[in-house]
Amino acid sequence: MTKFKIVTNGELSLGYRADEVRRNIKELCKYDAEMLAKVFSGFPFIFKTDLDEKAADRYKAALARAGIVCEIEEDVPEIKIQMDAVDAFAVSHHPTVVHIEKMTCPKCGERQVKSAVCIACGVLVEKFRQQQQAKQFTPPPEPEILPEVEEVEVSGSKLRVFGWLLLVVFLAGVGFWIYGVLFS
Fold it and tell me: Would 75 disulfide with which of 3, 62, 135, 142, CB 3.0-4.6 Å?
């Protein structure tokens, strides 16, 4: 029966902030600060191994809701060989199993052999990740500083004229109101 593992390189899902995802992963997986640093180091991190397909899908969905991009990969056990001098000749003349590290392009989502440049869209992977993280950590805008208001002296004659104008406008309004009540 095929077994699977859940792997991430610490890439955030679109629309999530790094602090939010760290908090979600910490609560979901019960990780301490050291484990969280490993998850978001940019290197492959294995969340869980030895899963059947259904369980792997559930784990991936839960991690996606937490805001981290992860992949389901076939869980191929590593072969450890103990050999003595006699076996060294036999092993050196036989093909060996090579583990090829894979990645998902953070821009286009293309699954490929790990490299610095995406083979599908040509983006520089690390530079793109740094730009995405810089966008997520934009500092809050500076508070707007309002200019000081100068005190202005109003002379007595200007104030009297303004008062008379205000009285005339008020009386005109009252007159129109009375006219409307009486003749409507």
Answer: 3
- pLDDT tens, residue by residue, 27-65: 988 988 888 888 888 888 988 888 999 999 999 999 999
Rounded to the nearest 10 degrees, what angle do helices 53-66 and 18-29 cross at?
140
Token representation of residue 17: 């902030």
In a domain, residue 43? The reply is yes
| 3-state DSSP of 104-132 | ECCCCCCEEECCCECCCCCCEHHHHHHHH
Range of the domain at 74: 4-78+96-136
Of 53, 55, 54, 34, which Cα lies nearest the Cα of 45? 34
- Let me know: does 59 contact 50? Beta carbons within 8 Å: no
Our CA angle for 106, 29, 99, nearest 5°, is 50
Q: Each residue of 123-161: pLDDT tens digit?
A: 788 888 888 877 776 666 777 777 776 665 656 666 677
Residue 122, in any domain of the structure: yes
The CA distance from 88 to 120, in Å, is: 41
